[in-house]
Amino acid sequence: MSELETEWLTRVLKGDPEAFTQLIETYQGPVYNLCYRMLGDANDAEDAAQETFLRAYKGIRRYDNQRSFSTWLLSIAAHYCIDQIRRRRFSAISLEETPELDPPDLTPGPETALLMSEDQKRVQSLLAVLSPQDRAAVVMRYWYDLSYEEIGEALSMSVSAIKSRLHRARRELAHQWTEQGPKPVAVERKCHESPAF
Question: Which CATH class is domain 3-192?
Fold first, then answer.
């Protein structure tokens, strides 16, 4: 944790709301991105990020300064998203109907944009087959590069449980990847290319 972050936390504990605003500005991107990757919807991710910061603010006195603040904050976001995913399943909302993982980049050309969109949809559909805890572990490991210990801390699991979940999730993702076969867009593109005579 940086000295500046430590100072902000100290000020927050003394009741300074401006210091918490500094923490929000520092972590709004990572928290939103984690929520978006887990929930797959920009509006839901925005709501989840706001709820994460609200819960962090209310629970700041329970924060253990021996832990990484970012890990603690991301764990709040992950747990909230896991709860939201469970609620969706009970409401019979299909995760497969959610939009792409990342907001579309409007700068590439049409063909590149189409390929990127297809890749994002494919990754979203792959993540959707995982349980909420496995999805959280995968996102934290491969998008945020958290250690097994940090993920275990964030999800309240042992390191061996995290390793087991990640191993099982990788195996399931690999199986789903091979089941889906080659990307339709890439195949279609090859068909439209003119032969080289």
Answer: mainly alpha
Cα separation, 138 vs 21, whole angstroms: 29
Question: Confidence band (pLDDT; 50, 70, 90) for 97?
Answer: very low
- Sequence ranges of the domains in the chain: 3-192
Q: For residue 18, what are the CA distances in angstroms to 12, 53, 59, 72? A: 8, 14, 17, 20
pLDDT 10s digits, 135-177: 888 888 888 888 899 898 888 899 999 999 999 888 888 888 7
Can you tell me the distance from the alpha carbon of 147 to that of 162, in angstroms, rounded to the nearest whole number? 10
Q: Report the alpha-carbon distance of residue 153 to residue 51 in Å, rounded.
A: 20
Tell me how far apart the alpha carbons of residues 131 and 115 are, in angstroms, rounded to a whole number. 27
Helix (H, G, I), strand (E, B) or coil at 16: coil
